[in-house]
Amino acid sequence: MSQRYTIRLTVNGEKIERDVEPRLLLSDFLRHELRLTGTHVGCEHGSCGACTILLDGQAVRSCIMFAVQADGHALTTIEGVAPDWTASSGPEAMHPVQIAFWEKHGLQCGYCTPGFIMTLIPFLEENPHPSDEEIIQAISGNICRCTGYQNIVAAVRRAAELMG
Amino acid sequence: MTTQLFGQPIKRNEDPRLLTGQALFTDDVKLPDMLYAAFVRSDFAHARILSIDVSGALEMPGVVAVYTAEDLGAYWQPGPLLVPPPPVPDLVFNPRMQVPLAKDKVRHVGEPIAVVVAESRYQAEDAAEQVFVEFDPLPAIVELEDALLEDAPLIHEDLDANLNAHVVQHKGDYAQAAAQARLIVKRRFLYDRGIAAAMENRGVVAAWDARAERLTMWDTTQAPVVIRNGIAAMLGLSEMQVRVIAPFIGGGFGPKIMMFYPEEVLMPWISMRLNRPVKWIEDRQENFFATTQERGQIHESEIAVAEDGRVLGVKDVFLHDAGAYAPYGLTVALNSQCTLLGQYDVPHYHTEFRSVFTNKPIVTPYRGAGRQHGVFVMERLLDLAAKELGMDRVEIRRRNLISPEKFPYNNEIIYQDFAPLVYDSGNYGPALDKALELIGYRRFIDEEQPRLRAEGRYVGLGLVTYVEGTGIGPYEGAKVTVETSGRVSVASGIGTQGQGHFTSFAQIVADQLGVGVGDVRLVTGDTAEFYWGAGTFASRGAVVAGNAINAAALAVRKKILQKASEELEIDQEDLELADGAVRVKGVPASAIKLGDLAARANPTRGAVKPGTEPGLEATDYFGPERGATASGVHAMIVEVDPETMLIDIRRYVVVHDCGRVINPMILEGQIHGGVAQGIGNAFYEQLVWDKNGQLLNASFMDYLLPTADVMPVIETDHMETPSPLNPLGIKGAGEAGAIPVGPLFAQALEDALSPLGVEILEIPLSPNRLFELVNDA
Asked: What is the pTM of this model?
């Protein structure tokens, strides 16, 4: 297990080069090596979607990928979707999907939220005017234990408005 | 006060941090030199431990230490009894608490046996696989009813039987009710186990700083103050040497307030012993065994009813599954017992339970905390009685509702807060009417259902009521400080797991001090900032901490008025607080910003009058005399596909009364989430055990949590019957959504399938189980 591989990838626009064990999960690499802890881990078996990130613009579950599989790819995590946002910049600097979740109370504990947002960004880019059914379909692979989803659906509708 | 913020749907202060991935959760803590722990857990539900061989693990790369029960020496102690039994006559109570690491015997699958500490989590998990435990398996108690059989294997061998407790309580004399009854309906009801499944698993980081002689602990707990005090006592430290931080918590729902989990006891000890920080993060599979669960009960119940549908009495005798240990006392079973009578005026009640040990994970409260079992039994009994009497299900309910003039209403039995079960206030009839109107009851029953049935469709309606004992004591406290920046800092001892405390509490303070909600910074769950309080449970945060915060803010308001009155040389009555300043009413130019006033109240030179307290700060506490009783009605219309037995919830209505509402947006979110967990509990989630006590579905692939595609749109409406027990008139709301969903499903599905003659006496259901019930009918 001690053999290590060098991987080169882009994370949130920044070029990264690291030596990693081949078995290192991408979620652990992001969270514990790069300290991008906004990507959360809920199940470690690809069921809950909390760890969803973008790989070359597509939503993937980082807990069922190895870091070495991300070699050569461009990743975006929740920290990268609103690069201009800081604690003092005010919420309007957030991504429209984030703003919509805020406005519509689409989160409670907030643990699953980054995964929902990363699932929804490519979805809304491809489907700028989704029906409720399409929204429900799009989020039905992500588990939220707090909200009952109703306000998440409302947030997606609102996000579509804001992005449209 | 210019604009009233209390009652407004204010967007949450905490959200930007959560939405941008900046909020700190326990697993985000990374410290220099940190070690990582992994547990070796029992593969058997019931077995003797013959030997433990850790030598192979110690040789694995990166391993720093491996500990078993023996290594803990005097630190090895069973956990404390969290909740002593209530003062009920002739109560039998045999508490047996969990241990940090199993010594001679394991009593449930997943019980920790050894802990491996290594330089990385991967190395710790590798090494944990090299710990070899020799077991002598014993027969396991899996089914509740097997626990008290004469030849049952003893889970705790120092007891004569697997009996945790036996409690009998009475109101009136049920025998008298039964003798007068026109009808007695008897049934056996089952309510099976489920899990809370918070999206964040549990975790603990402990860091002992030997030079400062301080221990810091990040813990996914709902009760940081209690953890601090307990850990300090166990480790022989002063409470002030221990700081427990419950940072953002990814969902709690009850199981994150089980003091003390073995991992919480062990991480601080390991950190002190190795003089390095150590982290343990539960994985999802561990969560299915190592985190507490709830809900297994079997009820033998009967209801005695008069000709006109009035309930004369109820008798309920049940078995409660405590799991392998019972640190939480009788809370869950008492809640079942004390919530059963619900909104109904029942003169005679015999209630009796036996809590039994089984070889399954520990049972502690999970959202609803036993209340749903009681509501299930009562609502089902009413449905069955109505059917036998040929009465409308709404009519039998209405006829038995406690009328408004009877409050406070005394149910006479003892509740989980050890006080007699007295409902503080309620107005049940109008809520029922509202629910009927919203769901379109008469139209559905008279027109829609007959029409759809004629088309061969299976559509049914459910309508149930419930009460929820909320906001119990003992107390919470808060410290409110106006800082020289003009911002207000509020510290409270409770933890927060998504309930919006950073906002709803800020609204209370903002109203008292005339500042913006965004100017109020809340700290919850950090014992360095506030170290009195009991925790977030029993739908008590808003009620108890909310009122404490209100009291502290009011005290600060008084200080502001007094100081400003001195500075402006004017009577306090002529002052007002608005826009972050105090000013003479109607004279904006006279305004002194609160930050400036705070600075003036904290002089660094000169003299103050004797007795002057510095700054604009106050600490206050609130402890209610007893819990406040929230209530509500759920109604739904459901269609069943007769081929697949899949369901489609066409309407779902909640009419809820939790007294005065601080933030209706947050409240609705609580209701939605509660209903979602209720729906999971009623139709999707079930833990499946084999006869050896092995859990067969310990993953999110196999244990089905509700996803967006199965959730209905929940239509909510609110009533406000203020609680007289606290100045803000609040009742709790956290658990209400989850409580009545089981009986609602049972009634609605029974109604939908009534052409097939199904009777539903159990929860959870599933398409498969419905299919079996239909075939048996």
From this structure: 0.96
